[in-house]
């Protein structure tokens, strides 16, 4: 009974629509009506600005971290990743926001943080490096997901200090999330192919703004 109650709590934690609440409370805007219509961190940055984006990023990461920590907090002998996945599903299909949520990247990061802080730092470095190279959050998210999934297999043998042992559940979840992230980014993939995908204003792949003629 405790397992199922905590699983529901994990889903409800993930369902907290950080971007929607921050937008409505502080900016009187519903993120779902602006930009990409997504309620996650990237659209928050674009629509509401840097401060709101950073706040939502930390809130979405925290959701995954708290949910994944539930077995430890309540002395339940279950792989914590199970509860992390419940939070990711809640973030993507939030009951508090008509099941229209984000793309699972930040909450998945929070899950990794609770599961293995060293692996979280490693994964974050991959994301930062790829963002600097591509200057596109969408492309970075997809490439990072692939590299992180491969790392769950390689690191236990190559650098056990980061990931001490192979966890088949971690690899399975990482692979499933990678496929899921690609599906959620199908519109972004089309824009990348068309050369119209938004870029962050830094990194090797960023393009300087064109000068406007008077």
Instruction: State the helicity in percent bands.
Output: 55-70%
Enumerate how many helices there are, as a single number: 10
Sequence of secondary-structure elements: HHHHHHHHHH
- Give the beta-strand count: 0
Strand fraction = under 5%
Main beta-sheet strand count, sense and barrel state: none
What's the end-to-end separation, in Å?
Answer: 69 Å
- Overall geometry: globular
Rounded to an integer in angstroms, the radius of gyration calculated over CA atoms is: 18 Å
Classification by helices and strands: mainly alpha
Describe the secondary-structure layout:
Blueprint: H1 2-15, H2 18-27, H3 41-48, H4 50-73, H5 81-92, H6 105-115, H7 117-134, H8 137-158, H9 168-184, H10 186-194
Helix pairs in contact: 1-4, 1-5, 2-4, 3-4, 4-5, 4-6, 5-6, 6-7, 7-8, 8-9
Features:
single chain; 214 residues; mainly alpha; 10 helices; disordered C terminus
Structure, explained:
- This protein is mainly alpha-helical and 214 residues long.
- It has 10 helices and no strands.
Short synopsis of the structure:
With 214 residues, the chain is mainly α.
């Amino acid at each position: 009974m405790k397992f199922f109650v905590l699983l529901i709590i994990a889903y409800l934690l993930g369902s907290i629509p950080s971007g929607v609440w921050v937008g409505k409370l502080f900016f009187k805007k519903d993120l779902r009506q602006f930009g990409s219509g997504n309620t996650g961190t990237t659209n928050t940055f674009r629509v509401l600005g840097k401060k709101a984006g950073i706040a939502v990023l930390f809130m979405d990461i925290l959701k995954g971290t708290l949910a994944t920590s539930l077995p430890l907090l309540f002395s339940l002998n279950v792989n914590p990743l199970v509860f992390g996945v419940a939070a990711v599903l809640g973030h993507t299909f939030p009951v508090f926001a008509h099941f229209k949520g984000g793309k699972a990247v930040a909450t998945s990061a929070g899950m990794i943080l609770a599961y293995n802080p060293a692996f979280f730092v490693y994964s974050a470095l991959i994301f930062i490096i790829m963002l600097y190279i591509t200057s596109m959050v969408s492309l970075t998210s997809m490439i990072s997901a692939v590299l992180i999934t491969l790392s769950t297999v390689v690191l236990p043998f190559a650098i056990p200090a980061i990931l001490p042992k192979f966890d088949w559940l971690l690899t399975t979840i990482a692979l499933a999330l990678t496929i899921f992230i690609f599906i959620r980014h199908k519109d972004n993939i089309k824009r990348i192919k068309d050369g119209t995908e938004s870029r962050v204003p830094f990194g090797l792949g960023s393009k300087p703004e064109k000068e406007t003629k008077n």
